[in-house]
Amino acid sequence: MPQLLDAFHDPQVCRPLVAAIRDRLAGRRLRFMEVCGTHTVALFRSGIRSLLADVVDHLSGPGCPVCVTHEREVALFLDLAAQPGVIVATFGDLMRVPGPGGRSLKAAQAEGARVHIVYSPAEALEIAAANPSAHVAFLGVGFETTAPAVAATVQMAKARGVGNFSVLCLHKLVPPALAALAAEKDLHLDALLLPGHVSAIIGTTPYQFVAQEYGIPAVIAGFEPLDLLEAVLAMAEMTAAGKAQVENRYRRVVAEEGNPRALAVMDEVFEIVDAPWRGIGVIPASGLALRPEYAAWDARQVFHLTEQETPPIPGCRCGEVLKGKLTPPGCPLFGRACTPARPVGPCMVSTEGSCAAYFKYRVA
Ligand code: SF4
User: Fold this and answer.
1) What is the separation, in whole angstroms, between the first and last Cα of the chain?
2) How far is the CA of 336 from the centre of ligand 1 (A)?
């Protein structure tokens, strides 16, 4: 990896790539969307956004799992935190995600709820095993990248007979969200930058419809600056040639078939369901739920949780940001009422959220 970073700083490598991108575009602009929060930040941090600002229009999509977690799913977090004897175990970036009325897990914790930040679902399971008088409910949020570890932990809980552990399963799937975006005529996308981490799990096949049905070129890329420049060049070349296909430019990590073991454990534990995405609405077959044979570890079943309609956060335009229809500075609250220190919407909470990235790198 260091050699990739070194190469980016080597003018002999970087300049020809930038020149090639400009050459292929031949005066026209490339309008692409990235659908991974890590790419959002990497494009800012590397300086590639500003380096190519005169030839590339860059949109951020629904690639931050915290950002796309719906208000009514956050309401479920809060319902869970209100249950007597429950310890909610969660990744730290969910603590400040606002739900109905702007309430978050952090507020619930301040009011006395037992909320523990963990670094893995396995850590949550160990807390349950060590606290038999409590029930530990883990918040399963994230895309295909996170879901296999959660599935494996549920299997472990079953195998070890840990009955005071459950998962609130809110995992989401990237390809159905891409289908929803690709169908949006007014986005006028030239190309898609596909997420490297998710692709390491699902492989390249689930994306083929983007090129075949919608005629949109797509590139799977890594996260180093050189990866990103090469991906932009690949998008520019396909656009110039009028060619739409899915190119895998992250072959050192992504295999065509993905990770069969991870896919198998997901399939064993989860079934595919419709899921709500913040600002987008319900996308068919875009979420995961625990299969009935794992009902004893399903927090929805254990605590009889049901999703309720919730009003959107007043003034927050995360929905348009997540669909690429608005850049964060276009939100009247950006940098004024809404900052990383006092976020109004989820896109300002997560470090991988578009609003937080725009704020940090101060893009006007
Ligand atoms: Fe939502 Fe804040 Fe972003 Fe506006 S700036 S869209 S309120 S997160």
Assistant:
1) 32
2) 10
Three-state DSSP state, 264: helix
Q: Which atom of ligand 1 is nearest to the CA of 347?
A: 8
Pick the atom of ligand 1 nearest to 320's CA. 6
Domain range for 330 is 1-364
Which atom of ligand 1 is closest in space to residue 326's alpha carbon?
Answer: 6
Average pLDDT over residues 59-86: 93
In the 3-class helix/strand/coil scheme, how is 240-252 assigned residue by residue?
Answer: HHCCCCEEECCCC
Give the angle subtended at the CA of 322 by the CAs of 305 and 206, to the nearest 5°.
80
**pLDDT tens digit string along 203-217?**
999 999 999 999 999
Confidence label for 102 from pLDDT (cuts 50, 70 and 90): confident
Contact by Cβ (8 Å): 317, 330:
yes
Q: At 210, which CATH number? A: 3.40.50.11740
Separation CA 276–CA 279 (nearest Å): 9
Domains in the chain, number: 1
pLDDT at 99: 85
Give per-residue pLDDT as tens, 285-303: 999 999 999 999 999 999 9
Q: Are 44 and 360 in contact (CB under 8 A)?
A: yes
**Ligand 1 center to 316 CA (angstroms):** 5
What's the CA-to-centroid distance between 69 and ligand 1, angstroms?
14
Give the 3-state secondary structure of residue 299.
Answer: helix
